[in-house]
Amino acid sequence: MPKNKTHSGAKKRFKVTGSGRLMREQANGRHLMEHKSSRRTRRIAGDLPVADGDAKRINRLLGR
Fold this sequence. Notes:
By secondary structure, the chain is of the alpha+beta class. Helices cover 38% and strands 12% of the residues.
């Protein structure tokens, strides 16, 4: 029986913490930073936990 493969896109976008929580990055933090305020870029820089409604689907994509 073949093994299930981890979804490559999900593996790049989500990280699992030591306690097992799923974390995601916020949008708008990749490019065009020059015109964004420092306050805004600092806020965008932090990771956020994944919403509970999405966690089940993401766990399945990650093979968990």
